[in-house]
Amino acid sequence: MVAIQLPRAGGSLYTYEAGRSATFEVPKGSLKSRVAFSAAHVVCDPFADVDPLNHAQIDWEATMAYRRHLWSLGLGVAEAMDTAQRGMGLNWERAKELISRSIKEARAVGGRVASGAGTDQLAPGPKVTLEDVEAAYEEQCSFIEGQGGEIILMASRALAACAKGPEDYERVYGKILGQVSRPVILHWLGDMFDPALTGYWGHQDLDKAMDVCLNVIRANKDKVDGIKISLLDAQKEIKMRRLLPEGVKMYTGDDFNYPELIRGDEQGFSHALLGIFDAIAPAAAAAIHALDQGDLNRYDAILDKTVALSRHIFQTPTYAYKTGIVFMAYLNGHQSHFRMLGGAEGARSVIHLADLFVLADQAGLLSDPELAVERMRLVLNLAGIR
């Protein structure tokens, strides 16, 4: 165990001993009972002499190394999603290079990657039309399929801004799904992750919005592998899961309730496409291996300990969760610094980060407690805490 002085709100300090919880030994081999994607973060290049708010650069080797780490655990990678700061520091031009590199890396190591196709090259505005939205989706889908990749069809800020009602969503999604060459994963992202997506599918009411989304899926079920919903509402997800057409998967995006949703019930279960799996990858892989073996007690014991950490990382404002994801990678030695695209490392307080450190340790997710303590001290020192 390694002792460190950590701050509380108000300025007092307390001693914490890290390294009490055992870390995870992940069994080798692929995951069988669930499909599990980790939405992966990108590593900023701290030596690029550019404006970090608008032109931050990516450290490609460290970024690809983290993806190799995820693949080595048996997880798939959901690429160029909001966890990678898509639309929040990562624009479409840079996302194209990220997607291309990840697909090549996945082929080299036998990993699975699915990439986000959206409309973020199109700025929402009063002159944007449905035809513009369709063209933007077509461009991104065409690029990903041209690279030989799988598509995650992301929610569109531009569509949310210009759609007049549910029929506009049905039109756009119907056209795009009619053109793709292989089934895609749809993505319904709640406004807690992106306020610009409020009222998606043409309704503020989630049940009515769900009906529209289900209509789209039923009309195009041969082109839909599954849907990821990120609403942080377990009952809404279970309701929708039970209404999906046969053969269409539910991928949970619920970073608050994922253990119970992946575990499932007598009527089914959710697969996973989660941002928190970036931060808890060893625990996620070990838990699904336990599920593969029918060991539900071990599954619960592993994942239940991670929930407090996940709820902390994803606390409001939820969209700032990327800061905690990258901080975990820094603590565990997957990158040499705590810098992010757009300066997003400053989106959480030092108290938040200190509490995250404790919760990660209690969940057995600090792979090298001595290194984690050393790096936590550097962050505290930068904040004037010694």
Can you offer a commentary on this structure?
With 386 residues, the chain is α/β, with parallel strands linked by helices. The chain has a single domain, classed as Alpha-Beta Barrel (TIM Barrel). 44% of the residues lie in helices and 13% in strands. Strands 3-4-5-6-7-8-9-10 form an eight-stranded parallel beta barrel, surrounded by four helices. The chain has a two-stranded antiparallel sheet with strand order 1-2. Helix 12 runs antiparallel to helix 14. The protein is globular. The mean pLDDT is 96.
Q: In which order are the strands of the major sheet placed?
A: 3-4-5-6-7-8-9-10
Shape: globular
Helix content estimate:
40-55%
Number of helices: 15
Main sheet?
Answer: 8 strands, parallel, barrel
Give the end-to-end Cα distance, rounded to a whole number of Å: 20 Å
Strand composition percent: 5-15%
Task: Set down the secondary structure blueprint.
Blueprint: E1 2-7, E2 13-18, E3 36-39, H1 60-72, E4 76-79, H2 92-109, E5 113-117, H3 130-146, E6 150-153, H4 157-162, H5 166-179, E7 184-189, H6 206-219, E8 224-230, H7 234-243, E9 249-252, H8 258-263, E10 271-274, H9 276-279, H10 281-292, H11 296-304, H12 307-313, H13 321-331, H14 350-362, H15 369-382
Parallel strand pairs: 3-4, 3-10, 4-5, 5-6, 6-7, 7-8, 8-9, 9-10
Antiparallel strand pairs: 1-2
Helix pairs in contact: 1-2, 3-5, 5-6, 10-11, 12-14, 13-14, 14-15
